[in-house]
From TrEMBL:
Residues 376-645 form the FAD/NAD(P)-binding domain. It holds the Pfam family Oxidored_FMN. CDD domains: DCR_FMN. Residues 8-330 form the NADH:flavin oxidoreductase/NADH oxidase N-terminal domain. Keywords: Flavoprotein, FMN, Iron, Iron-sulfur, Metal-binding, Oxidoreductase. This is 2,4-dienoyl-CoA reductase (NADPH2). The keyword Nucleotidyltransferase does not apply. In the N-terminal section; belongs to the NADH:flavin oxidoreductase/NADH oxidase family. GO terms for molecular function: FMN binding; iron-sulfur cluster binding; metal ion binding; oxidoreductase activity. The lineage of its organism: Bacteria, Pseudomonadati, Pseudomonadota, Gammaproteobacteria, Moraxellales.
Amino acid sequence: MSQPFQHLLQPLDLGFVTLPNRVIMGSMHTGLEEFPPERQAAFFARRAAGGVGLIITGGISPSELGVLGPGMCAMLTEADAKKHKVITDAVHAAGGRICMQVLHAGRQSYHPLNVSPSGKKSPIYPFPPQAMTEEMILQELESWVNAAALAQQAGYDGIEIMGSEGYLLNQFLTVRGNERDDDWGGDFERRMRFPLEVVRRIRARVGTNFIIVYRLSMLDLVPDGQTFDEVITLAKELEKAGVSIINTGIGWHEAKIPTIATMVPRGAFAWVTRKVKEAVSIPVSASNRINMPSHAEDIIARGDADMVSMARPMLADPDWVNKAAANKEEEVNTCIGCNQACLDHTFALRQASCLVNPQACYEDQLIYIKTDKPKNIAVIGAGPAGLSFASVAAERGHNVTLFDQDTQIGGQFNIAKQVPGKEEFNETIRYFGVMLKKYGVNVQLGKRVGANDVAEFDEVVLATGIVPRQLPLEGVNHPKVMNYIDVLRDKKPVGKRVAVVGAGGIGMDTSEFLVHDPHHVPSSLDIDEYLREWGIDKTLQARSGIEGVEAQVSPSPREVYLLQRKNKKITGPGKTTGWAHREALLKKGVNMLTGVEYTKIDDEGLHISVNGQPQVLAVDNVIICAGQEPQRELQAAIEALGKTVHLIGGADVAAELDAKRAIRQGAELAAQI
């Protein structure tokens, strides 16, 4: 029998070191960088033990001017290098290899001392930068070299130079960030001088037997970015300068195009990586929305890339590579690209984790230890909270029976997965199904449970979720009124003109469902459709991949009004993805109204007042997405039997459909019960 995933798992010889496979754990800031290094050591060592070929740390600044925010991590002194030795020793002891990413934020930082080639402020960061003088340029150049040498001293196997996502090196390369007319700006040859000098000087300092990965911005996706010819020119020069591996970077943080959210198709930019790979002879790695072994295997087998780089999938499942090697892809806990516990936390300066794997970044705190006192535990509700608890409790050795009145597991995820752009939620349901079977959970579906059904169990976990909140509004029982469950789960017919009441996550998801033709393949599943919808030039003739390209959006089958009480812009939940969902709805022509007061619903439609001005929306249906209530009516009856009842997920707190909290709460309870 041939080896599974033979392209993905093939060793890669860099001349002075051989990597065991083609998998890079990509860089991602987790917040652990600001804790004692032992926590990072546990985090990275866990991934090294999971089989990753090469780990890259979160971004670490080479200077005080280049940090992402006040007090954030930098590699400046031998004392800093000594602290990092704990991390590299742990990774090497686990059989892994690790590079430190050197990241100079430039103008993309949260502190007032930031610098940039020119004094142009970023549109999304708070502080204007100081334009770098010649002296500052030379000083920052030397700081890169110093950081690389210290990384080598700390035991790192190499570094990754962060040259994409709009950080300092990317700023030097583009007219958008560099309006200089001296030796460091002007034509492209001068604009690329700074990044090339960084590489040349580092290579001269660290010698030949040290990995240098360069994260190359292959598509800037912002006005006044690089042309693709410039990208290729730089790639060839980077190879000459001594780079070992080129890694793919796509889009600045300022770009108004989603590049890693779940609405982006898998491997949406591997075709760009292929073009760079064809121009150089050193290994090139693909990135962005690669999350399963079979997909990664296809990318390498097709010749799109020599390697694949994945950050968030390694949060979701540290054993991703080992499971691929064992041909157990069905056991992979798939990253669903939600960003809710990782990037949303990072940009809010909170410690990251993972929605589908709450142990991520908590390896030294949330530990699943085999129990020596197995209990018989009933779990009522097979949504995210119940699935999380049941699988972890059974893994620890408890005897778990999982009940649900539905005929399938998944709970609210079965609703969410209906929304175009959220198809990945299927993967989480699949993963939990495999775990329930693996750990011997007794699953009882299609059964409505009463208190007497759980009378013989030692403890009961109530994970019965939520019910939609009813609005105290005249006419709320009118035949044209529905709630989001009627639409997303029960597929009740919806008219051509629709008002969605409530613009939170549920309201936006419902609107997304309504503006898609069910017979049309959504852009989240079709790369060409995605590129058309967001105005990206697949011929790579347009500067930055976007200039002069018109977005082409399939028309909505309905006229949709999305209504919000608050008198502020509708943004949706999640700092890093909410804007993208809003933009997608605007592209489909959704009418977004804020400052709305609801008066009544009748045959004419929905009567509202917007900023004091009354009007009637003559709609066929009004869909209520105005919150939820906990569903916990069984609690009192079970407790009356003398049983301990634990409330988790929506049965405990009915916030927005908060799978992140539900899965973590289930796992934490299961770890200690």
